[in-house]
Amino acid sequence: GQSLEQPSEVTAVEGAIVQINCTYQTSGFYGLSWYQQHDGGAPTFLSYNALDGLEETGRFSSFLSRSDSYGYLLLQELQMKDSASYFCAVRDRTPLVFGKGTRLSVIA
Amino acid sequence: DGGITQSPKYLFRKEGQNVTLSCEQNLNHDAMYWYRQDPGQGLRLIYYSQIVNDFQKGDIAEGYSVSREKKESFPLTVTSAQKNPTAFYLCASSFDRGGGYGYTFGSGTRLTVV
Fold it and tell me: What does each C-alpha distance from A76 to A59, A60, A89, B77 come to in angstroms?
Protein backbone atom coordinates (compact mmCIF):
# COMPACT_ATOMS: atom_id res chain seq x y z
CA GLY A 1 0.00 0.00 0.00
CA GLN A 2 0.89 3.63 0.00
CA SER A 3 1.44 6.05 2.86
CA LEU A 4 2.31 9.72 3.05
CA GLU A 5 3.56 11.78 5.98
CA GLN A 6 3.32 15.53 6.25
CA PRO A 7 3.20 17.85 9.29
CA SER A 8 -0.27 18.53 10.58
CA GLU A 9 0.21 22.25 11.23
CA VAL A 10 2.64 25.01 10.31
CA THR A 11 2.57 28.68 11.30
CA ALA A 12 4.51 31.39 9.49
CA VAL A 13 4.71 35.16 9.35
CA GLU A 14 3.35 37.22 6.49
CA GLY A 15 6.10 37.94 3.97
CA ALA A 16 8.23 35.02 5.09
CA ILE A 17 9.07 31.70 3.42
CA VAL A 18 7.66 28.36 4.53
CA GLN A 19 8.44 24.79 3.50
CA ILE A 20 5.96 21.92 3.84
CA ASN A 21 7.55 18.49 3.67
CA CYS A 22 6.09 15.23 2.45
CA THR A 23 7.60 11.76 2.67
CA TYR A 24 5.97 8.81 0.99
CA GLN A 25 6.07 5.06 0.71
CA THR A 26 4.63 3.44 -2.38
CA SER A 27 5.22 0.29 -4.40
CA GLY A 28 5.22 2.19 -7.69
CA PHE A 29 5.78 5.87 -8.32
CA TYR A 30 4.94 8.17 -11.18
CA GLY A 31 4.86 11.53 -9.47
CA LEU A 32 4.08 13.75 -6.49
CA SER A 33 1.53 16.54 -6.60
CA TRP A 34 0.35 19.32 -4.28
CA TYR A 35 -3.11 20.77 -3.68
CA GLN A 36 -4.38 23.79 -1.75
CA GLN A 37 -7.71 23.76 0.06
CA HIS A 38 -9.27 26.74 1.80
CA ASP A 39 -11.77 26.12 4.59
CA GLY A 40 -15.07 24.97 3.14
CA GLY A 41 -13.69 24.84 -0.38
CA ALA A 42 -12.46 22.23 -2.79
CA PRO A 43 -8.81 21.31 -3.35
CA THR A 44 -7.10 23.07 -6.22
CA PHE A 45 -4.09 21.75 -8.12
CA LEU A 46 -0.79 23.54 -7.44
CA SER A 47 2.01 21.47 -8.94
CA TYR A 48 3.22 18.07 -10.10
CA ASN A 49 6.75 16.64 -10.02
CA ALA A 50 7.59 13.49 -11.94
CA LEU A 51 11.34 14.02 -12.02
CA ASP A 52 13.89 15.06 -9.40
CA GLY A 53 14.38 18.75 -8.94
CA LEU A 54 12.61 22.01 -8.35
CA GLU A 55 9.57 23.26 -10.26
CA GLU A 56 8.69 26.93 -9.83
CA THR A 57 5.30 28.53 -10.42
CA GLY A 58 5.20 32.10 -9.23
CA ARG A 59 5.50 32.28 -5.44
CA PHE A 60 5.14 28.51 -5.14
CA SER A 61 7.84 25.92 -5.83
CA SER A 62 7.79 22.15 -5.46
CA PHE A 63 10.75 19.83 -5.07
CA LEU A 64 11.12 16.09 -5.50
CA SER A 65 13.82 13.58 -4.61
CA ARG A 66 12.79 10.14 -5.85
CA SER A 67 15.77 8.43 -4.23
CA ASP A 68 14.75 9.83 -0.82
CA SER A 69 10.97 9.39 -1.38
CA TYR A 70 10.67 13.00 -0.34
CA GLY A 71 9.24 16.21 -1.62
CA TYR A 72 8.35 19.66 -0.38
CA LEU A 73 6.24 22.66 -1.25
CA LEU A 74 7.90 26.04 -0.82
CA LEU A 75 5.78 29.15 -0.45
CA GLN A 76 7.54 32.51 -0.70
CA GLU A 77 6.41 36.04 0.18
CA LEU A 78 3.61 34.62 2.27
CA GLN A 79 0.27 36.38 2.14
CA MET A 80 -2.69 36.07 4.48
CA LYS A 81 -4.66 34.42 1.68
CA ASP A 82 -2.17 31.53 1.71
CA SER A 83 -3.70 30.35 4.99
CA ALA A 84 -5.18 27.01 3.95
CA SER A 85 -4.56 23.27 4.08
CA TYR A 86 -1.98 21.80 1.73
CA PHE A 87 -2.06 18.17 0.62
CA CYS A 88 0.61 16.12 -1.06
CA ALA A 89 -0.56 13.23 -3.23
CA VAL A 90 1.24 10.32 -4.82
CA ARG A 91 0.49 8.95 -8.25
CA ASP A 92 1.28 5.33 -8.96
CA ARG A 93 -0.79 2.81 -10.92
CA THR A 94 -3.91 3.58 -8.89
CA PRO A 95 -5.82 6.82 -8.28
CA LEU A 96 -4.06 9.51 -6.31
CA VAL A 97 -3.43 8.80 -2.64
CA PHE A 98 -3.53 11.93 -0.51
CA GLY A 99 -1.73 12.79 2.69
CA LYS A 100 -3.75 14.05 5.65
CA GLY A 101 -2.83 17.63 4.92
CA THR A 102 -0.85 20.44 6.54
CA ARG A 103 -2.78 23.37 7.89
CA LEU A 104 -0.82 26.57 7.23
CA SER A 105 -1.62 29.62 9.33
CA VAL A 106 -0.12 32.90 8.16
CA ILE A 107 0.09 35.51 10.91
CA ALA A 108 0.76 39.24 10.73
CA ASP B 1 -15.28 27.65 -18.94
CA GLY B 2 -14.93 23.93 -18.39
CA GLY B 3 -15.26 22.44 -14.98
CA ILE B 4 -16.98 20.02 -12.64
CA THR B 5 -20.41 20.76 -11.22
CA GLN B 6 -21.56 19.04 -8.06
CA SER B 7 -25.06 19.33 -6.70
CA PRO B 8 -26.54 19.93 -4.29
CA LYS B 9 -24.07 21.96 -2.24
CA TYR B 10 -25.74 20.88 1.02
CA LEU B 11 -27.79 17.73 1.56
CA PHE B 12 -29.60 16.40 4.58
CA ARG B 13 -30.40 12.72 4.90
CA LYS B 14 -32.74 10.99 7.25
CA GLU B 15 -31.83 7.66 8.80
CA GLY B 16 -32.49 4.76 6.42
CA GLN B 17 -32.71 6.96 3.34
CA ASN B 18 -30.74 6.67 0.12
CA VAL B 19 -29.48 9.89 -1.45
CA THR B 20 -27.75 10.60 -4.75
CA LEU B 21 -25.04 13.19 -5.27
CA SER B 22 -24.67 14.58 -8.75
CA CYS B 23 -21.36 15.16 -10.56
CA GLU B 24 -21.18 16.51 -14.10
CA GLN B 25 -18.07 17.55 -16.05
CA ASN B 26 -17.57 19.29 -19.39
CA LEU B 27 -13.81 18.84 -19.51
CA ASN B 28 -13.94 15.78 -21.77
CA HIS B 29 -11.94 13.84 -19.19
CA ASP B 30 -12.16 10.06 -19.27
CA ALA B 31 -11.44 9.29 -15.62
CA MET B 32 -13.60 10.45 -12.73
CA TYR B 33 -13.36 9.92 -8.98
CA TRP B 34 -15.31 10.24 -5.75
CA TYR B 35 -13.52 11.09 -2.50
CA ARG B 36 -14.80 11.54 1.00
CA GLN B 37 -13.29 14.07 3.41
CA ASP B 38 -13.94 14.12 7.15
CA PRO B 39 -13.04 17.13 9.33
CA GLY B 40 -9.30 17.56 9.64
CA GLN B 41 -8.66 14.53 7.47
CA GLY B 42 -7.29 13.80 4.06
CA LEU B 43 -9.26 12.53 1.11
CA ARG B 44 -10.28 8.89 0.97
CA LEU B 45 -11.23 7.22 -2.31
CA ILE B 46 -14.75 5.81 -2.60
CA TYR B 47 -15.09 4.83 -6.28
CA TYR B 48 -13.45 5.69 -9.57
CA SER B 49 -14.20 5.20 -13.24
CA GLN B 50 -11.63 5.27 -16.02
CA ILE B 51 -14.10 4.83 -18.85
CA VAL B 52 -17.83 4.84 -19.52
CA ASN B 53 -19.71 1.77 -18.23
CA ASP B 54 -16.80 0.74 -16.02
CA PHE B 55 -15.92 1.60 -12.43
CA GLN B 56 -13.85 0.24 -9.56
CA LYS B 57 -14.14 0.29 -5.79
CA GLY B 58 -11.83 2.46 -3.79
CA ASP B 59 -10.71 2.10 -0.19
CA ILE B 60 -14.08 2.85 1.42
CA ALA B 61 -16.72 1.68 -1.09
CA GLU B 62 -19.01 -0.08 1.42
CA GLY B 63 -22.39 1.60 1.62
CA TYR B 64 -21.92 3.52 -1.64
CA SER B 65 -22.79 2.85 -5.28
CA VAL B 66 -22.03 4.61 -8.57
CA SER B 67 -22.88 4.49 -12.26
CA ARG B 68 -21.10 5.80 -15.34
CA GLU B 69 -23.58 5.73 -18.23
CA LYS B 70 -22.22 8.89 -19.85
CA LYS B 71 -18.72 10.32 -20.02
CA GLU B 72 -19.93 13.58 -18.49
CA SER B 73 -21.73 12.13 -15.49
CA PHE B 74 -20.64 10.11 -12.44
CA PRO B 75 -23.37 10.15 -9.74
CA LEU B 76 -22.76 8.72 -6.28
CA THR B 77 -25.51 7.11 -4.20
CA VAL B 78 -25.09 6.98 -0.46
CA THR B 79 -27.19 4.05 0.69
CA SER B 80 -28.73 3.30 4.06
CA ALA B 81 -25.97 0.73 4.53
CA GLN B 82 -23.47 3.55 5.03
CA LYS B 83 -23.61 3.97 8.79
CA ASN B 84 -21.68 7.21 9.10
CA PRO B 85 -22.33 9.22 5.94
CA THR B 86 -21.90 12.72 7.37
CA ALA B 87 -18.93 14.13 5.44
CA PHE B 88 -17.78 16.39 2.62
CA TYR B 89 -17.95 14.59 -0.75
CA LEU B 90 -15.70 15.62 -3.60
CA CYS B 91 -15.92 14.59 -7.22
CA ALA B 92 -12.89 14.95 -9.47
CA SER B 93 -11.62 14.21 -12.95
CA SER B 94 -8.01 13.75 -13.96
CA PHE B 95 -5.92 15.55 -16.57
CA ASP B 96 -2.51 14.78 -18.01
CA ARG B 97 -0.96 17.67 -19.88
CA GLY B 98 2.25 19.63 -20.23
CA GLY B 99 1.99 21.00 -16.70
CA GLY B 100 1.70 17.56 -15.25
CA TYR B 101 -0.88 15.11 -14.03
CA GLY B 102 -3.56 16.16 -11.60
CA TYR B 103 -7.18 16.43 -10.62
CA THR B 104 -9.82 19.05 -11.14
CA PHE B 105 -12.31 19.00 -8.28
CA GLY B 106 -15.92 20.05 -8.05
CA SER B 107 -17.00 22.39 -5.26
CA GLY B 108 -18.24 19.48 -3.16
CA THR B 109 -21.43 18.33 -1.45
CA ARG B 110 -21.72 18.51 2.31
CA LEU B 111 -23.94 15.66 3.51
CA THR B 112 -25.44 15.64 6.99
CA VAL B 113 -27.54 12.94 8.61
CA VAL B 114 -30.48 14.34 10.58
Answer: 5, 6, 21, 42
Chain A residue numbers with beta carbons less than 8 Å from the beta carbon of B108 are 41-42
Binned at pLDDT 50, 70 and 90, residue B15 comes out as confident
Q: Is a pLDDT exceeding 80 seen at residue B39? A: yes
Q: What is the pLDDT of residue B47?
A: 98
Residue B113 burial by CB count (10 A; 0-12/13-18/19+): exposed, middle or buried?
A: middle
- DSSP count for chain A of H helices, then E strands: 0, 11
Half-sphere exposure (Cβ direction) of B76: Cα atoms closer than 13 Å: 34
- Cβ of A43 within 8 Å of Cβ of B45? The answer is no
- Report how far apart, in Å, the C-alpha atoms of B83 and of each of A11, A99, A107, B63 are: 36, 24, 39, 8
Which of A:62-101 have CB within 8 Å of B? 87, 91, 95-101
**A28-85 pLDDT, tens digit each:** 899 999 999 999 999 999 999 999 999 998 999 999 999 999 999 999 999 999 999 9
CA atoms within 13 A on the CB side of A97: 22
Distance from CA of B15 to the nearest CA of A (A): 25
Band of the pLDDT at B24, cuts 50, 70, 90?
very high
CA distance B107 to chain A (A): 5
